[in-house]
């Protein structure tokens, strides 16, 4: 049965090699877009494009449902190569435009996401009783020895009396 979405109608189509008694037949998903775009998950369509037998069967199936009274919007598929190229140009230009809009948002989008996550983590911490600390105002103490520590160690070693000298006789 076709499933009608706002932008397309989608059907599952069994492989032509599938038998009625087969437990796990190969099923392809076919989508007919109301903008003229169509896709199929079969290898023929994925590798070569164009209209595969699953798309043809789906068009016939949807047409039969429409004639039986189903309310499915028309799916105007390109008939010629020229129409297909025009449709491809429209779709790719829309995708490029969407990509450019997304990239133009750039850092502001990232900063909004970071702010949202920080707020969410703060709310979660507060709900379990963990106090939020202001990490920007607190500077972390350096770990490991500092230069002053190393100088102190050197002076301790050189100023020590000879009572702890080791003598190794070979």
Automatic annotation (TrEMBL):
Residues 28-63 form the SWIM-type domain. The keyword Ion transport does not apply. The keyword Endoplasmic reticulum does not apply. This is SWIM-type domain-containing protein. GO terms for molecular function: zinc ion binding. InterPro entries: Znf_SWIM. Keywords: Metal-binding, Zinc, Zinc-finger. Residues 131-154 have a biased composition (Acidic residues). Residues 129-164 are annotated as: Disordered. It comes from the Eukaryota.
